[in-house]
Write a structure and sequence with these properties.
four-stranded antiparallel beta sheet; single chain; seven-stranded mixed beta sheet
Length: 123
């Protein structure tokens, strides 16, 4: 099982920026970020495929968030700009080590999860 360690969470005012990092040990095929606010379902935020570098985003974050891979490292960053209070949530990094016909946001496909990092955006 891939080990994942997240970092970069914190508190920021609306309109500000934050960058999350996910460091993975072992082979990964796909890394995605999910988030979950209190009382809400966990939702996919963004994903990157290591083989093709294709990226995918939830509609709610398109144009504001950017997912990228650190060159020559099993590390993925999530750059979050123009943050809104609605972005407040616990953010989780997840990894899949194999291709699948399931969508990038289908959380059941992921076998490895990080511990989560809190992001709080104040008005």
């Amino acid at each position: 099982q891939v080990q994942l360690v997240e970092s970069g969470g914190g508190s920021v005012q609306a309109g500000g920026s934050l960058r999350l990092s996910c460091a993975a040990s072992g082979y990964t095929y796909l890394i995605a970020w999910f988030r979950q606010a209190p009382g809400k379902e966990r939702e996919g935020v963004a994903a990157i495929y290591f083989r093709t570098s294709n990226t995918y985003y939830a509609d709610s974050v398109k144009g504001r968030f950017t997912i990228s891979r650190v060159n020559a490292m099993n590390t993925v960053n999530l750059q979050m700009d123009s943050l809104k209070p609605e972005d407040t949530a616990m953010y989780y990094c997840a990894a899949d080590d194999r291709p699948s016909n399931r969508a990038w946001s289908d959380l059941v496909r992921f076998g490895s999860w990080g511990q989560g990092t809190q992001v709080t955006v104040s008005a």
